[in-house]
Specification:
Blueprint lengths: L2 H7 L21 E4 L5 E6 L4 E7 L10 E3 L3 E2 L5 E2 L2
Antiparallel strand pairs: 1-4, 2-3, 5-6
């Protein structure tokens, strides 16, 4: 992978990830549905327990941020994110 392209697109470098303690009470788990730099928009279908491709952005466009949710929480509109 070209480091310049990886840095430009904001992709994480897995070599810099550190192991975590799953018993850590301060650990916040999140689900990233659509990663920063991706053209593909995914969404979690709670009924089917799968991620579905919802849309693909046109060439040259990409999502500027990671989009996702914290499992077992409720949004302002009352919908629950269960994963």
């Amino acid at each position: 992978m070209n480091k310049k392209n990886g840095a430009r697109r904001g992709l994480a470098n897995p070599e810099k990830l550190k192991p975590f303690n799953s018993d850590d009470k301060d650990l916040l788990r999140v689900i990233i549905e659509t990663p920063k730099g991706s053209r593909n928009k995914f969404a979690f279908d709670a009924d089917e327990h799968i991620f579905e491709l919802k849309t693909v952005l046109p060439a040259g466009m990409a999502f500027p941020y990671d989009f996702g949710f914290v499992p077992s929480t409720r949004a302002d509109d009352g919908t629950e994110s269960t994963c």
